[in-house]
Amino acid sequence: MDLGLKGKKAVVTGGTRGIGRAIADLLADEGADVAICARNPAEVEAAASALSAKGVTATGGVVDVADSAALDQWMTAAADTLGGIDIVVPNVSALAGGGDRDAWRRSLDVDIMGTVHTVEAALPYLEKSDAGSIVVISSVSGVEIIGPDIRPYNTVKAGLIAYVSNASTSLARKGIRANTVSPGTIFFEGGVWDQRRINAPDAYKWALSRNPMGRMGAPEEVARAAVFLASPAASFITGTNLVVDGAITQRIQF
Fold it and tell me: What pLDDT, on the 0 to 100 scale, is given for residue 248?
């Protein structure tokens, strides 16, 4: 299927590793020009170079999405380099598992406000696009309670789904689509589940055992869903939350 992404301009936050990197790679493979950001300068440089080698325009920035001023500056620079923005993929998370106040604050600043600021900074450019699309990466933790503890991660991921659902109605009038993708347990080297495999093997084995498919997912499997939703091929899909979890969530999906 031709997704219609050749020549489109895409922005991906948290685009140097894991799901974000897989999304950026697939966008570039489909012919889209890509801007990525993350906090590690060496990883940003390496990722931007690898994306450029695919024959598209690619640029990277060192940005903490909780810093709204820096995020605004980077978005402007990215749009200037790419020649506009058609697609924005907010993908950064604080990954806060604790329940202390610092964890709540960081989760709100990064997951919620980082996403809101990313969307708001991109909106002036999306409004000029003929294929404006927002795809926010949430989590199955936002649709199902997992474990007995109260965690900010679950709350902010649910909040993202609600935010995007609300935004989709408002932005539809401007020709901009907005969707979320909610991954299940996704394994990649250096990622959360790899770290738990090493440092908390019992927790890793428990999570793995919950997967009916007998394995965790790969970033590329999430990326395929996200890139499809971002593309013109999904031109009439907006306001949806696409769960990519290998049936780990035990619920009826409506």
Answer: 94
- Output the pTM of the full model: 0.97
Least confident range from 3-7, 59-63, 92-96, 249-253: namely: 249-253
**Structure tokens, 106:** 């960081």
8 Å CB contact between 178 and 134: yes
Count the domains in the chain: 1
Transcribe 4-30 into DSSP letters. S-TT-EEEEET-SSHHHHHHHHHHHHT
What does the pLDDT average to over 195-222?
A: 95
**pLDDT tens per residue across span 213-239:** 999 999 999 999 999 999 999 999 999
**Does residue 151 lie within any of the structural domains?**
yes
Alpha helices in 114-187 (DSSP H): 114-126, 152-172
Domain that holds residue 96: 9-187+220-244
CA distance linking residue 193 with residue 140, whole number of Å: 15
Q: Is residue 130 part of a domain?
A: yes
Going from the C-alpha of 153 to that of each of 100, 108, 123, the distances in angstroms are 12, 9, 26
The answer to whether residue 204 sits within a structural domain is no
Task: Give the pLDDT score at 98.
Answer: 78
**CATH code for position 72:** 3.40.50.720
Q: What is the CA radius of gyration of the chain?
A: 17
The residues that bridge with 137 in the sheet, in sequence order, are 181
Write out the catalytic residue numbers: 138-139, 153, 157
What is the tens place of the pLDDT at every residue in 145-176?
876 677 899 999 999 999 999 999 999 999 99
Evaluate whether residue 253 is within a structural domain: no
Alpha helices in the chain (DSSP H): 18-29, 41-52, 68-82, 101-107, 114-126, 152-172, 192-199, 201-209, 219-230
